[in-house]
Amino acid sequence: MLFEMLQGEVTRGGWNDEHVKKSLDLCLSCKACKSECPANVDMATYKAEFLAHFYESRWRPLRAYAFGMVDKWLRLASIAPGLANFANRAPVLSHLMRHVLALAPERKMPSLAPQSFQRWARRNGVPGVDDPAQGAAPSAPAAHGEVILWADTFNNYLHPETSRAALQVLQAAGVHVRVPRQHLCCGRPLYDFGMLDEAKDYLINILETLREPIDAGVPIVVLEPSCASVFRDELCNLLPGHSRAARLRDQVFLLSEFLEHHAPGFEPPRLSRKVLLHGHCHHKALMKMNDEESLLRKMGVELHSLDSGCCGMAGPFGFEKEKYAVSQAIGERMLLPAVRQTLSETLIVSDGFSCREQILQSTGRQALHLAEVLRLAAATEHSVPEPSASPSF
Q: Which end of the chain is more exposed for a tag (fewer CB within 10 A), N or C?
């Protein structure tokens, strides 16, 4: 359809063609085509570009602003998370929201945590990016054992326990961890609705806010694979030739990547458990699962890594009323039956927020992030205290 649109022979509506729009609606933006298709066709980028043009002359649906700018809404709601959760659960308000945003009635909206990770970190003395380092110059390079733990939207406002687990793991690996004080977001949800100008502004803000540690070569550990994919892929696509963007791209690591290749002497704690591993689409497409699998095997787990494709949630895709059936059908192809068939003591591991949400809402099983598994293993080996402001070198 895109080829026909560019040819202008059969499909003549150009960027405004409803047929092209309809054909792209079922694209999951999973990026699998970028690595698995022999032609390396990047449909996720094509879709975002098309939608950016398509909506130049028309209003986007309300859910584009609800989901695309979810970081802003969660930041606002985190001021009074109890009130926000009450409104989310109240039948009348919940029904109204689902009707206005055309959401699937079967879906449950995630609840906010009582306290965001950034707020917890600040109250517990975890150093901020701009705070003077103890015994080292500000923005010390990787050789000085310093990293920035990226506080992504979902693991900051919805699942701060994942970020706290990652903080503890990194401290145990002997690195000095800093957490950004400011509200920063990679803008991943914006791409699903073609909000590319807004996404570019988000990225420029990150480059400006973190300019000193980026220029100093400080590694940035990211927990959410979709965020890492923005820094690895979309960042330099939107800002070609930007030297700091190129540096940031090369300094971003998933937790497994950092521990495997940039934490000398790190020995993961042992864990005698069975693990069912599901990889996030962007993780598999751009960064591969080798480091994650290697780290889990070093822990001594009995690992079964699923070749399960997309979980079906795919960000806002699985929440949309008209796509719910497709979302579930994708999940039911392999992932969800495999989860249901596992024993209760088997750990379900998936780093993607959407993946864990699909598993929870469809099977009732709580999947864990790799950071939580590492923390669980450490707690099993010996008593582990809560993360502190100062790492143990």
A: C
**CA angle at residue 239 from 236 to 240, to 5 degrees?**
70
Q: Residue 281: is it exposed, middle or buried by C-beta count within 10 angstroms (0-12/13-18/19+)?
A: buried
For 325-383, the pLDDT digits (tens) are 999 999 999 999 999 999 999 999 999 999 999 999 999 999 999 999 999 999 987 65
**Distance between CA atoms of 280 and 284, rounded to whole angstroms?**
6
DSSP string for residues in 188-248: HHHHTTT-HHHHHHHHHHHHHHTHHHHHTT--EEES-HHHHHIIIIIHHHHSTT-HHHHHH
pLDDT in tens, 335-346: 999 999 999 999
CA distances from 275 to 164, 210, 348 (A): 21, 36, 6
Q: What is the pLDDT of residues 86-98, one digit of tens each?
A: 999 999 999 999 9
- List domains and CATH numbers for the chain: 2-54 (no CATH), 274-381 (3.40.50)
Buried b (16+ CB within 10 A) or exposed e, 215-247: ebebbbbbbbbbbbbbbbbbbbebbeebebbeb
Taking the alpha carbons of 184, 190, 192, 194 in that order, is the dihedral positive or negative? Answer: negative
